[in-house]
């Protein structure tokens, strides 16, 4: 049986062209939502939209730019209707040297995409959701917001910030019917992890109680729950999807 619990909903998924984002787009569209794939590699995004049908569209987008968010919201309303779901998924992950060797430019770029992006997204979408009578926002954080890893001060600190922003927004927006939650993937089998060494990968697998990498579809299933009526009384919560690694 095909799930249709999101019929009539309009979703925006940043970085939805591939990896976890693409899995989220497929999941939400499969549940009946109209979906905007916001940013990411254009060729991948347009191909995914063409595959999934007329109710899924791709829009170029820069998550760190306020004007780009304004344009995205205007386009979404005009093409599909007011967004009732926002998934702040876009992110960059570039492990490097320790804090001494981390370039300020690299730190700033992680901040711009991973932290400023979700802030601007929540800011823009919540204004529309308030008027529409409610909505659901999911911020994709990381297991790196629960435990530190060497060489990741730029990445980890932005993901820690996403935890805090999620909880602040949940408290502020609850009275308007807008729920805000965060999802914290562990080591998920996508191209983002191509940068890690085989030795590190083996160490992670050995430390993971379930003994494997996660699947993008497993993260997407958690997101689907958090934007569906099944989680109507859930806000300000953190969902760790990591096979037990942070336990």
Automatic annotation (TrEMBL):
SUPFAM superfamilies: NAD(P)-binding Rossmann-fold domains (SSF51735). Gene3D superfamilies: NAD(P)-binding Rossmann-like Domain. Keywords: Oxidoreductase. Transmembrane segments: none annotated. It comes from the Bacteria. PROSITE patterns: ADH_SHORT. It holds the Pfam family adh_short_C2. InterPro entries: NAD(P)-bd_dom_sf, Sc_DH/Rdtase_CS, SDR_fam. NCBIfam families: PRK07231.1. Belongs to the short-chain dehydrogenases/reductases (SDR) family. This is 3-alpha-hydroxysteroid dehydrogenase.
